[in-house]
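Course assignment 3, question 2. Fill in each field.
Student: A.L.
Task: Predict the tertiary structure for the chain below.
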Amino acid sequence: MPDFSILGSLAPYHIISYGTLLGTEFFQSFIGGIVAYKALPRAQFSSLQQAIFPIYFSLQTALPVVLALTYPGSHQTLGTSSIPSGLSGVLSENNRVSVLLPLTTIFATSLANLLLVGPATTRVMRERKHQGKSFPTKFSTKTQVLTSLRMSRDEGRQEELR
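Answer field:
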């Protein structure tokens, strides 16, 4: 008969939370974002990012809290003191730099992205989109701009010669 006693400890939930945090950050940073940028036109890529980022930053903000609450601690071994599990273990003197500092940094930066940076970026993107509609440009690529400048320069020279 299988032993389900591990489900009563915090360790499996801690590992699942850590794996979820690491996996979502890796996928969004190195796979999903890059593939979407290369495969989608700019407008669709922008719409996709506007829909994904609030969810992504919410996960990044919530999972460090879950990691702190499910911290498994350590049991006493020869000559060392045990560290309690959960939030009290994270706040323990021995874990302030190695556990509390990274979790706090992840939480704070993710919260700033969720509440400040993300909305500000979205606002600027919308303003630029409206500016593009208000002031349409005749040229869409650098090559076209350079070609047009050369043509107008050549036309000016031709008029001078006449």
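Instructor remarks: The chain is about 75% helix and 0% strand. The CA atoms of residues 28 and 123 lie 22 Å apart.
Grade: pending
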